[in-house]
Structures are given as structure tokens and as C-alpha cells.
Amino acid sequence: MDVRAALRLRWVQALIVLVVWFVLATLLKGVQTQELSTATDSPFTAMMRDFAAAIRGNRTESFLFVYVFNPIRTFIAGFIELIMSVISVPAEGNIIPLLGWFGTWVLIGFIVYATSNLRTAIFSMFMLLLCGMLGMWIITMDTLAMTVGAVVLSLAVALPLGVWAGLNDRVMKVLRPWLDLAQVLPTLVYLAPLALVFLIGIASATIATMIYAIPICIRITAHAIKSLKHGPVEAAVSAGSTRWQVLTKVQLPMAKRTIILAVNQTTLAALSFVVIAALIGAPGLGKPVVEALTIRNVGDGVVAGLAVVFLAIMLDRATTAAVMREEQGYAASDAQKVRRRIGLAVGAVVTLVAIYLSRYVLVFAVFPERLDFGDQVGAIADAIEEWITSNLDFLTTGFSQWFTVWGLNPLEGVLANSPWWLTLAAITLLAFILAGRTVGILVFVLLALVMATGLWYDTMVTLAMTLIATAFVVLLGIVLGVWAGRSERVERFFKPFLDAGQTMPAFVYLVPVLALFGPTRFAAIVLGVVYAAPVVIRIVADGIRGVPKDSVEAAISTGSTTMQVITKVQLPASRRSILLGANQGLIFVLAVVVIGGFVGAGGLGYLVIVGQSKPELAGKGLAAGIAIVLLGVILDRIAQGRPSERAPAPR
Amino acid sequence: MKRVGTGATLTIALATVGLALAACGGGVNEASSSSAAPSPAESTAAPAETSAAPAESSAAPAPADCGDWGIAMHAWVGYTASAQVLTNVAEDKLGCKITQTQLDEAATTYDAMEAGSVDVIIEDWGGGRWQEWVDRGAIEEVGYNGNIGLIGMFVPQFVCDENPGITDGTKLNDYVDLFKTPESGDKGAWLEGPPGYTTIGEKIIKAYDLNYKVINTGSEPALIEAFTKGSEDKVPVLGYFYEPQNFLAKVPLCRINFPANDWTDAAKASGLTDYPETPLVKLATVKLMDSGSPFATLLTNFEWTNEDQNQVALDIENGMDPREAAQKWIDEHPDVVAAWLEGTGAS
Asked: How many residue contacts between A and B have a Cβ separation below 8 Å?
């Protein structure tokens, strides 16, 4: 009887499946793995190749171009060029844009001051000054213009959709596959078609950015609206409020803290596109990054990368502070209001003077070369890189080889080097057990689709890497997220590193990572962890902070130890955030699968790159992109568990 | 009320800018005509940006109207060298206005050429990948640029010194143990070339039944780091490499040879024979070639050797601004440049 009871437990069932799977996979190693050489097409990839060629060949002056694509391109490019003409691009024959550097600098400071507070304004100006001192003023302004433009356009689309999806589950259900698609489909897959339709340059770069940034914003906004406590909403409804009133007076203000997160993340996502932009001829900080990689000059790359990070930190703090002020606006006393009004007047005058100076006095017009320390910073970065790669590689090589032999290879053996039907059956069973029948059937269908693409083997190789990278990411995210969520000091210490990890373009540290780990799958895992861990840490920390103070204090007053408070109160109460974090971690890891292709990891990421480079393999690139999306949806659905557990009943 | 407050402050901010702009006329920009002010390009530290700077290229008397043209910039240093030399000559001798655009290679660039956004690829390795675009009348081949690409499988020099027989590629199975890594398991690791390059590793392995596993390195830095590390730590590495590439001057590599023949289309390679020598191709838009611009003539005449390219590339890798590195070579080779200018009306 005990055995039968135990068999009913889900984790026991899952364990049995895993053991049987492992044994069979070991016995049948290398049988029917569906491995396909890079140069060979499957029927599906051959079809995709012909399809890609057909689109390309038929590009004519059709009405789609005249009435849809060209106006969109003109509007987006025009919007961003307008911003650029003010701060970064001089008009024909001119030396400086509308504003010289000093005018731009003070004006940005003033705008930040007007929307938040003096401290943030000074901090923002300091960050921008650092960008200038790296010798990157104009290029930073190019990127700033493109980022601001892309974020404004993204928010205009995503915020209303996010609120709607948060209020209405059915909308979310319709949107969700598209969000998955847009967020997980590697940019390189659609970059060439995008450039084909919208031409190379600013418009294509901005649209690529928006495709990636909008889903993040929609997801977080919807999550914010949805996870509100039902009490206040019901109270408002019973007090006779209309739906609109409930939304604007109760739900939006209450969700503000998390919506800030959405604005932040949209901005950071937009900044992560600087390198992609450089690949299709758009201006900005990605250009020096790619040029530095071309000659493997780590120092130059770091200089440009640091400018990206400083710009990211500045935008992050400025947006956060702006909304914080909105929140606290009610509390201001009359004296404070008067003081602020005087401050604004003084600021306006100072800005006026600065703009005037920046148009008439050379030092204020063009960033002074005397303040350019880019070369020195580059030299320091080179020295540090040199030291790390020559002194730490024995350690890293040893660890990565040990981990590859004992962790990655066995997992890949089970997933990829065993018969495809065994893996398919095992994953489907696990989905049934862990996430229920609906998800189980869905996963089966999706896996069958992966099989149909003909890229089964590569998908499983990528899955093995993704699982391991995500495990690292979630582990890091929970440990550091809890730590940061419990202490503001720790959080403040982490913040710059999180910003750097998330915004420093991977191309900047590709060379050191390669020098440490060689062209290996482990190098790709490292790249994935660096990029995905920050977002998980942030979301977990946000969840921990959101745990009601009284329940924490109650636990402490009853004599719980710190460990007990964390495991019994804070972690369970922020379960939703941790799930969201794991989910986002997974998606972020998948988002850099393609970068893994640049460092010898093979799998789907490499196929995407090779499809981009060799027209004859374009079909494999497209199919690999589709396979990455399928993989993302499969993992996402299984990770979310049973529907009944997804939305705990309101208390 | 607070919303109104924020709105008002923003209005003030915008009004401020408006006032400030209304208050002043040309300012520093007016001074530009007197050429006393430095060009903004000097302060941006963006090497390849210089050519795009306005009002800079009017130094030389233009023999015929050259016009505005775009060169695609691909991400390897040899390419940068060729493109920059071409840019310098076109701007300084012909008075062309050249815009360099950083672009992903192959399809992205061919599409951009078809759309008219760029006009020239100065070095393309991919035997005939552009045919589809030629068929549609967008692109045409402008002959060879004089550089000869030689692809092959290489090992660090010390491996050849210790194992003299290894240069015979058909015997690679005798050396599998040297190249085993955790990535390749019980096979040898065969580091394959970057995605855009012609690669037939899978075919060679199959043709000779070699016990090696192809590791797709995915990028040039990945290969270079692997060879650098292998040479320094005396760990044998078997990988794809190519000339012209000035890296070979820094880390000596030794070529593994397979029987030679003369296939040029990678699709037709049997895998039994080695990579052939590939003359690298210049591509341009039909629009440029039909324009009658002297730039088209210059492009047609442009031709230099691997040695020339390596010299400029090495200067760039050592930190020289690409424009200066190109100019240094141009000043040292007036005869070659004069030959390129034949028929353009300039000298």
C-alpha cells in the first residue's frame, strides 16, 4: 500500500521517468540521434531556403512597400533623426548639432531635475561626463537618441497592451505566443529580412529593438496589474467605482513599483541592441565595439562598452527617480514646493546660458580633447585582461573541462546522443507529470514540430546548454536576489554590476571569455549566465522586498532565525516573483544562444549565424530560429507547472 | 495637481531650449567656413568615421564629377585595410564622397546593395554566393582585388616539429590522441572556420574516414584565441586558418596538406582534395559601374598583394588609425596608386 501511495507522488513518478530514461539512453547511445551535418539540408530547411529566396526575389515596388513599409520607415527614421539632429548629428556643412555638448549636457541634467530631483540630475550628468571622458561623446549621443526613440515608441505600444493583458486573461492568452515568439526568436534570424524590407540603418535597427523590447514591457506590466491584491479592487468596485476608475485610481497606482521595472527593463533591452544596430549600418556605440572585436582589441571594446554601461545606469536611475517623485508628489509641503519652483527657474536660466555658450564657444561646443581619457582606460583594460587570461586560465580551464566531462557531456548524452523517440517520450512524460495533461499534449506537439524541422539533434545540444545555464542563473538569482532584497546596502552595491552584466555588449568580453575557456560550450554557458543572471536577481529581490513587513516582523518576534525567515516566510511569499524570475532567466538565456554560436558552442545558435552568412544555408538558419522558439515555449510551459498552481486563489 | 506640475516643468524645459535656439544664430557652425575650428571628427575617436565627416573631402581638384558612394565595411581587419586605402584614394585623388557603413557580410550587404544603400564590397571570399543578386541585375563582379585567399587546416608550428609526419592530412588518424578535448570526446577536435567562410571539413572527414569531430568555432577571434593559447601552452590544436592574415606573422602555424586539385565551387568539393587558392573578388552595384564615375574606374583598377594588405592590417592592429595606416601605405607606393588612377583623369 505504501508503495502505491508513493507512486502517486509526482516527484516519485518524475524520478522513475528520469532513471528509466537515463538507463535506456546509456544503452542506446548514438542510435537514431538524427544528427545532421551542417552543410546538409533537411526537407524542411530546404523548403525554408527556397521560401527565403522567393521573398527576396519578389521584392518590388508593390503596394505593401509604397503604402505600408516605406511610410513606417520614414516615420521611425524621421522621429529618431529629429532627436539626433538636436544632440548628435550636425546638419550638412555644420560642425556641431543643434546643441553643443555642454548645452546637451546641461539640458539633459535639467530635464532629469525637472522630472525627478537634483541629486539624480547631478548623478546623470556625472555619468554622461564619464561617457565623454571615454572619448565617446558624439557616439554616446547617437546611441542615446536611438534608445530614447526606440523606448518611447515601444512604450507607446506596450503599456496599453500590457495593462489590457493584465486586466483580461483572454488577451494575455492570445498575446502570449507572440510574446514568446518575439522575445525568443533570435534577432539575427529576422535581421536580414528586416533590412530587406526597411533597408539598412536606423529604421531597421529601431524596429529590431522594438520587437525585442515590447514583449518584456508587456509581460512585466501585465504581471504588475495582475498580481495586485484583490481586496482594494473589490472595495473600489463595491464602492461603486467604474472599471476605468478602478484602473486609474487603484490598480495603476498600486502597480507602479513594478511598472517602473518595466520601463527600466525596456530601456536596458533597447540598449542591448547597440551591437545589432551596428551590424546593419546604424550609428552608435556598437560600431566601435565591432571594430574593436575585428582587431581583437579588448581595450577599445571595453571603452565603448563602458560608455554603454554608464548610459544605461544614467537612464535607469533617471527613469526610476522620475516615477518615484510621481509617487511621493503628494507629500510635498508648501515650503518644498516654493523651493522647487525657484530651483526650476534657476535651472532654466542656467540651461539657457549653457545652450547659448555651447553654440558660441568652442570648448563648450565640441567635447574637449583634453578631457578624453579613452586611450588610458583602454590600456588599463588591456592590462587587466592580460593579467586575468594569463594568470587564471589554469583555474578556469580546469573547472570548465571538469564540468564539461561530468555535467554537460552526460546531460547531452541523454538528451542528444540517444534515440530521438526516447528523448521525445521522456520529455512528454515529464511534462504530463509536472504540468498536467494540457501542457503534456502541447509539449508533445511542439516536440514533434522540432522533429519536423529536421534539427532535432542541434536542438537537443542547445537544450542541454540552456538547462545548465538556466540552473546556474536561477541558483545565482535566488541566492543573490534574496541577499539584495533583504538589504538595501547590498542592493546598492550590486546595482552597477547588474547593470553592467545586462548592458555590456557580449562582443566586448567575447575575447577574454574565449581566452579563458577556448571555443567551447562552456564559454557559451558563461556568456548566458552573465547576461541572464542580473534580470533574475532583480526580479527575485523585487519580490522579496514586496513581502509585507509585518509578516517578516511577526516571524522575527516569534524567534525565527534569519534562515527560517528566508525559507519559511520570504521565499514562499515571493514564489510568484521567483517563478517569473526563472521564466525570464530561461528566456534571457535563450536570447543569447546565438552569441554562443560565436564561441564554438555549435547547436542552433551556430546554425542561425551560418544561415545569416551563407545564403545557401539560409533555410537552416530560419529553421534553427523556429526551433529556438519552440524550445522556449516548451520550457516555459513546463516551468510554469500545473494551471491550478499558476494562479493561487485570492485570499 | 501633481501631473500638471510635471507637465509644466517639462514645458519650461522645452521652452528653454526654444528660447535659447531662437536667441542665437549660427554660432560655432558659422565659424566653420573660416576653417579655424577643428573638425568634430577629431574629437570623436571613431577611426572609420572620418570619411563621413562633412566638408572634408574638397581638398583635391575633382577631374570628373565623382559623386557619393558607399563602401560596406566587414568585420575583419584585412578588409578594413583594403576598404580604407580605396576610400583614401577616392576621396583625396578623385574628390568622391565616400561613406563607410559597418555591415554584416553576405546576404545583408547584398540586399543593401540591391536597395541602393551601399555600392562596394572590396573583398568577398564566398565563391559565387552573390549569383542570385547578379541574376536580378543588382550586383556585378568587378574582377579580383589581387589578394589570394589560401584556406587550410593548420596546427601550431611546434606540433609539426614534434610530429614531422603530421603534415600529410590523410594520415591524421595517427594523431587523434593529440587533439582530444572534452568537446570532442574520444575523437579529435577539428576546429572549423567562421560561418561566412568556405568550409568543407565535414566532407574531408567523411572522405578520409577521419576520427575527428567538427567543432564550429563560429568566429575569427575564437580561432585566433585557440591557436594563441595552444602555441603558448604547448597544447596541440587542429584548426582552420587562412591567408592573408597577419596573425600568421605573430604565431607561426604549420599547414596540414591534402591532395590538391582545382575545384572552386565548395558545393562540388569531394572532400578528397584540399582547399584551392581563392582569388578574392570585388563586387559593386550595377548603378555604380554604369554611372561613368571615375570611382568605378578606380575600383576596376584596384589591385594589390597579400603583403600589401598585411602591412596595412598590421599597422591597424597595432593601434594606428585606419586612415593613417592606409595613407602611410599610399605614400610609400605612389606607382601602384598611379596605376589605379589610370583612366580616371587624376594623377
From this structure: 276
Does residue A310 fall inside a structural domain?
yes
CB contact under 8 A, B136 and A602: no
**Cα angle A216-A586-A426, degrees, rounded to a multiple of 5:** 135
Average of per-residue pLDDT values in chain B: 84
A38: nearest CB among B10, B110, B216: B216
- One domain, residues A382 and A399: no
**Confidence label for B26 from pLDDT (cuts 50, 70 and 90):** low
Has residue B37 got a pLDDT over 60? no
- Look-up: residue for cell 548628435? A88
Q: Are residues A500 and A647 in the same domain?
A: yes
Measured CA to CA, the distance from residue B48 to residue A579 in angstroms comes to: 46
- Spatial separation of the C-alpha atoms in residues A306 and A300, rounded to whole Å: 10
Structural contact between residues A192 and B107, judged by C-beta atoms closer than 8 angstroms: yes
- The shortest CB-CB distance from A615 to any of B2, B13, B106 is to B106
Backbone angles phi, psi at B256, to 5 degrees: -90, 125
ipTM of predicted complex: 0.83
Position A525 in a domain? yes
User: What pLDDT was estimated at residue B38?
Assistant: 41
Cβ neighbour number for residue A474 with a 10 Å cutoff = 23
Compute the distance between CA of residue B337 and CA of residue B85 in angstroms, rounded to an integer. Answer: 10
Alpha carbon distance B98, B83 (integer Å)? 10
Of the candidate ranges A333-337, B199-203, B282-286, the one whose mean pLDDT is the lowest: A333-337
Residues of chain A with pLDDT under 70: 1, 57-62, 229, 257-258, 326-332, 641-651
B111 in contact with A, Cβ within 8 Å: yes
Residue A408 CA to residue A521 CA, distance in Å, equals 9
Q: Are B69 and A394 in contact (CB under 8 A)?
A: no
Q: Which three cell numbers stand for residue A130?
A: 564619464
Structure confidence at residue A601 (pLDDT): 92
Indicate if A170 and A270 belong to the same structural domain: yes
Residue B341 identity (one-letter amino acid): L
Q: Does B303 have pLDDT greater than 90?
A: yes
Residue A298 lies in a domain: no
C-alpha span between B139 and B119 (Å, rounded): 9
E-only strand ranges, A546-587: none
**In terms of CA atoms, which chain B residue is nearest residue A288?**
B46
With beta carbons less than 8 A apart as the criterion, state whether A124 and A317 touch.
Answer: yes
In SS3 terms, A303-352 reads as HHHHHHHHHHHHHHHHHHHHHHHHHHHHHCCHHHHHHHHHHHHHHHHHHH
Last residue of a domain, one of A329, A363, A391: A391
More confident residue, B319 or A332: B319
As a whole number of angstroms, the distance between CA B276 and CA B259 comes to 10
Tell me, yes or no, whether A224 and A270 share the same domain.
Answer: yes
CA dist A204 → A60, A70, A143, A281, A322 (Å): 18, 11, 14, 9, 30
Q: What is the four-CA torsion angle of A339, A342, A343, A345, rounded to 10 degrees? A: 160
Decide if A13 is inside a domain. Answer: no
Q: Does A606 touch chain B (CB under 8 A)?
A: yes
Closest CA to A536 of A479, A473, A591: A473
Residues in contact with A120: Cβ distance below 8 Å, sequence separation at least 6, in sequence order: A112, A113, A317, A318, A321
Mutation site for B-interface testing, chosen from A108, A291, A393 by largest number of B Cβ within 10 Å: A291
Q: Which CATH class is domain B46-148+279-341?
A: alpha beta
Q: Indicate the CATH number of B149-278 among 3.40.190.100, 1.40.20.10, 1.20.1600.10, 3.20.20.80.
A: 3.40.190.100
